Amino acid sequence: MAVNLLLGLQWGDEGKGKIVDVLTQEYDIIARFQGGPNAGHTLEFNGIKHVLHTIPSGIFHESAINIVGNGVVIDPIIFKKEIEALKKFDIDLKKRLLISRKAHLILPTHRLLDAASETSKGKAKIGSTLKGIGPTYMDKTGRNGLRVGDIELDDFKERYRNLTDKHEEMISHYNVEIQYNLAELEAEFFEAIEVLKSLQFIDSEEYIHQAIRNNKKILAEGAQGSLLDIDFGTYPFVTSSNTTAAGACTGLGVAPTQIGDVLGIFKAYTTRVGSGPFPTELFDETGETMGRVGKEFGATTGRKRRCGWLDLVALRYAVQINGVTQLMMMKADVLSGFDTLKVCTAYLYKGREIKHLPYNIEEQNVTPIYTEMKGWAQDLTTIKDHNKLPQELLNYIDFLEKELEVPITLVSVGPDRTQTIHRK
């Protein structure tokens, strides 16, 4: 049985958490393959809003096993808080939540390093979530990191101390003032480590391999978005992991030949949190309306998201590098009420028209070229049937399918899991 992938195709915040929750009933295993608590996957059902940061979005389904893969970085303190928030739902976490021994740990000093690094950059800040993600991945690639499996070793605390001593020395070299009490941070950290130890650690690549052999249905869940990929995103305003389809192979130990469908999630418009280029960003009343109606605030940081028209140049690029086989459009309801919609279909790049994403998309190099379409006024949030959608939205969907050459198989018309329309 092949492993299906679910990925965000923009700068994150596409609505992956909701779709994983909707699709989980079709799968036996949901596996996170990269990222860490900088992710914020929002799920809403029965009038309750849930935000998950590290735990896979299938955790509310009794029949699904949820795996935190080796490509993920885990902050035990945030993980503990997630677990505590789930207690009232009577979820058997020891049975339904498994953690890869090869997943790396975020230490308190990783967060301090993150803050020191970002502060030292001044106006050149990259918009880090300050969760310690970057420094943890740096330790991983530098072969200094601590992993979940190290918790089981007798000398774990000695390994921890050696690494934190090194971190404190590095912090002092930034020449910025960072106030902290490491003893307090460490007390909270080791308390969280004990909670982590109460869960089941696994050799995840072997577990998933056996699941594939036993014809289990597996969905790999990505975090952030493709345009934040460390290699293929808008560098340096990116995250520190591979958010694209290739990241699922290294983040779970799955061979490329075992990948099945690639499900790409995108918003009917575009948003971005933090710094970085954004060709279709709107600074007018239209952009403000998108943000207000769409409740565009980061699930992890609470930061206001920047809003703009759908960028098909960037979206086409993401479809291409991921090998997307199905598209799922989120927040179509947010566009209700606009008389005219715009879609960026090409860029004017250094004086010539192009349809591919160039090396640099800073505003001095790129001007978006738009196609205008008629909008719709109808409220979509109570519609259940694809055929009941307004004709203008159907025209919008048809236009996107022709441009992207991939079918849009799902349209979301609201935040609740029931506000989802499946298309054949």
TrEMBL record:
Record keywords, A-Z: Cytoplasm, GTP-binding, Ligase, Magnesium, Metal-binding, Nucleotide-binding, Purine biosynthesis
Catalytic activity field: IMP + L-aspartate + GTP = N(6)-(1,2-dicarboxyethyl)-AMP + GDP + phosphate + 2 H(+)
Record-linked PROSITE patterns: ADENYLOSUCCIN_SYN_1 (PS01266), ADENYLOSUCCIN_SYN_2 (PS00513)
Recorded GO CC terms: cytoplasm
Active site: D13, H41, K140
Residues annotated as binding substrate: A299, T300, T301, G302, R303, K304, R305
Main subcellular location of this protein, as a coarse class: cytoplasm
Entry binding sites for Mg(2+): D13, G40
Pathway: Purine metabolism; AMP biosynthesis via de novo pathway; AMP from IMP: step 1/2
Family matches, as InterPro entries: Adenylosuccin_syn_GTP-bd, Adenylosuccin_syn_Lys_AS, Adenylosuccinate_synth_dom1, Adenylosuccinate_synth_dom2, Adenylosuccinate_synth_dom3, Adenylosuccinate_synthetase, P-loop_NTPase
Record's subcellular location: Cytoplasm
Family, similarity comment: Belongs to the adenylosuccinate synthetase family.
Binding partners and assembly: Homodimer.
Listed name of the protein: Adenylosuccinate synthetase
Organism: Capnocytophaga canis
Gene field: purA
